[in-house]
Amino acid sequence: MPLKEIECLKCGTILKKRVGEAINLSENPKAVNDIIEGKINFSYCPKCKTKIEHKSHVLLTYLDPPRWIWLVSRKYQNPKYCEEFFTTIVPPGSVDFIEQDMVFVDFGTPCESLAYVIENKLPQTSKDWLELGKIHTGSEAVDCYKNALKINSALTEAKSLLNEEMDKLKTYQL
Ligand SMILES: [Zn+2]
What we know:
By secondary structure, the chain is an alpha/beta fold. It has 7 helices and 8 strands, in the order E-E-E-H-E-E-E-E-H-H-E-H-H-H-H. Helix 5 (126-134) packs antiparallel against helix 6 (138-151) and helix 6 runs antiparallel to helix 7.
């Protein structure tokens, strides 16, 4: 793994960390727990103790069938970032032959809804659909909130998040 210099944005301390490009979950199935428990891709600054993300995104891969899951820092959670990422950053053409998901997390914080994405399963309860929506963006988030409301139409948090996400999509498409 390449050694990367990472700067603490608060105090300017430079950390040197070995930072991998991707985690192959077919070869390292045990990594799934660390990922869900929020134990990857961050350190605390030795000087000021601020949390520092090593990279803005981490790629999780499966070999057979090929599947990529992009874990992206929550500060980029908007439909525009997602579309630009898949049209400019990922290897050209890869979206045509590899199933790819993008989810947004706070590195360093546990995220149970990631299990649905990693295990490629659908939630059964309105609460779990709501939580799954919160780590997505754009039409994928909208679908999750709609599924939550199908099960429980009185879930006010899903209603307000659905409206927010629709507004974001409208602004972005202007
Ligand atoms: Zn610092």
